[in-house]
Amino acid sequence: MENEENILGHEKIGKLIKKFSIPCMISLLVNSLYNIVDQIFIGWGVGYLGNGATNVVFPLVMVCLAFALMLGDGSSAYLSLKLGEKKKKEAGIGVANGISAAIIISVLFCIVTLSFLPQLLNLFGCTDNLREYALGYGYIIAIGLPFMMIGTMLNSIIRADGNPKYSMTTMVSGAILNVILDPIFIFVFKMGVEGAAIATIISQILTFVLNIAYIKKFKSIDISKKDFKPQISVVKKVVMLGISSFITQMSFVFVMAVENNLLGKHGAYSKFGSEIPITVLGIVMKMSQILNSIIIGIAAGAQPIVGYNYGAGKYDRVKKTLKTILGISVTVSTVAFILFQTIPEKLISIFGSGDELYMEFACLSFRIYLMLCICNGVQIPSGIFFQAIGKSFKSAVLSLSRQILLLIPAFVILGELFGIQGILYAGPLADGIAFLIAVSLLIIEIKKLGKSKMTSQTLIDDTSTDNKLNKQIVITISREYGSGGRYIGRLIADKLGIKFYDKEFITKLAEETGLSEEYIENNEQKRDALAGLNNGYYFGLDNSDELFIKEAEMIKAVANKESCVIIGRCSDFILKDKENVVKVFIYSNMEDKIKRATNIYGFDKSKAEKEIKRIDKLRANHYKYYTEKEWSEHSNYDICINSDVLGVEKSANLICELVKEKENVLKAMI
Question: What are the CA-CA distances from residue 241 to residues 148, 152, 168, 274 (Å)?
């Protein structure tokens, strides 16, 4: 990992973007083209009603894809995290549990879809004229859902195992087979939409078989049969790690469901009818998804570059990377804009022919709905940029703003006011507002870049010792902010003549990771509630994961070497299997915490309570994320002390007495 970090910190930005972006872009494009191939051949072999039918089935496929990506990306993140912690066995269990969950969920989806397909299609805007085609296509696609879901989730895991070429090969192989089989089943065997569905299933089975075969070839882990037994805690962790991918995909499902229903409703009162708008706008959105796949690939490739250099304090490289990806993305989106505006009739003709009304609505859709697609070249990279630097709230706003917060309300309101054309204008309205939000947030962030200062006043750690203990004992101290826990820990170290570890970890982390001390100070032991939304595009460890893994290694190293006091950093959990550990939690009432925060840390009294609650929440989130336990749960610790009852001095004395008792217990065990 050190070599990659060095490359990220000094290699030419353009070269790095090529290295990381191209594989990601190809992977995303293959996924997009996979969906479009069926529509091209169905359009020529069946007609636009066949394409309309696939558009009302597509949201159902997207729901399944959302679960597949959630489990796949979650398992990938779990694999990377546990391997980073040197917990190879746990990594294998996580992957196996992810696969088991995918098998169970995919089979359930298959059963539910086969049982309730007509009702599900109604939810996604199916009309009477589309129903026969949609049912014919949907029932067959439903049979292949387990193959699609398991194959897709395994793709993510294979990438995380360090074999992106194999993953890409299996995807491309399936896509190529689909291209070959579609015309055979549609034109040669005259099977219509059912033939396209059969071709899709066979292609998905190929990818599934190739990916299943890889399970025995994992390079980083070994999986046994018993590892596949579902463990609720492990599955829950995998799900939380992959929740970002799930939310992203489900936002598309909601958009398509609302869009299809409104197109059917308002289209019925227009000269175009219901089926033409549902068919055409579905195709237009899939064409725009090709553009978005390219932009996401470019930005996702830059994500590790931005993340590392931001953490390392190399802000000039961060700005240069951002400028480069924005320049490339805007160029790509400009070319797409020109094509959408000048040759819409040629683009729609790729998907078969139609009557005059069909072509008229197609031209309107491309020119109106994608009027501001240039904005995607800024909005999409901005969201991924904020992911990379750990700004969870801003990332979430940009990720969800266009799809959920803007586009769906615009569909409803403009549709009611202006009918079918109002729905088309909802696209540029959402794009424009999302663009303005992205630009505003970017400008603010760039202006602040490199100007932040450390706000906490961490004491300099003393390395001098006069050890008064006869046995090696480690004291871990978790504490609420402002409770005096850190000072109590320092008193304990002085009284027992042992080392005190807090600031020293930050210095060592900076040396080992290349990240700046300022970044580590402001980001370690803290996790935003929305941080889970920062996963999904780049598969691997982010800076926060790397900090935790490195700290865990350091904590274990010092605990094996000497008696010491360790402040925070989930050290009680990291050392949970060691018998010579005394685990302490220090808390206090809010009034006294405010006094300490204002007197010692210089907080504004009016804002102190809010800041204390914010920091404690971040610590609790961090602890929960990495330990799957509650930070303030008393059963995690040997002793919990309200520092206001005894005061810091007597609290330290009480803990020292407990340490002496622990020492006696350890002696008796010999």
Answer: 21, 17, 22, 40
